[in-house]
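Deliverable D5.2: sample structural annotation.
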Amino acid sequence: MPLSTHQRDLLSLVAKSTTPVAMSGFFETINPPAPGLNEDHPDHPAWTERQLALYGVSLELWRQGLVRVVTPADGSNPDLVEATSAGLAALAH
C-alpha cells in the first residue's frame, strides 16, 4: 500500500533520527502554524484538526509495522519509536 504524503513525511523524519523519537514532536514540522495563529485566530480550529489527524497517521504507521515502539509511553512521556526495516523499505519506493 502506498504511503500518504503525511505518512511519508512523518516516517522520513523518524527514519532520519539517530535515536528513538516521539512522532508527535514532528507534527509542527509537518503542519506548521501560520504566523500569528493563536487560539482566537479563525484558522485555529482547522489547524488543530490537522494536528490531531497526525495522531491517526502515527497510529497507522505503527499498525502497518513501519515503526516500532522502543520505549513505551509512561504517562509523563510519549512512546519513542524508530523506523523498522519495512518502514525503510516503504520509503525506498
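Annotation notes: The first helix runs from residue 5 to 16. Strands lie at 67-71, 80-83.
The annotation will be released with the project's public dataset once the embargo ends.
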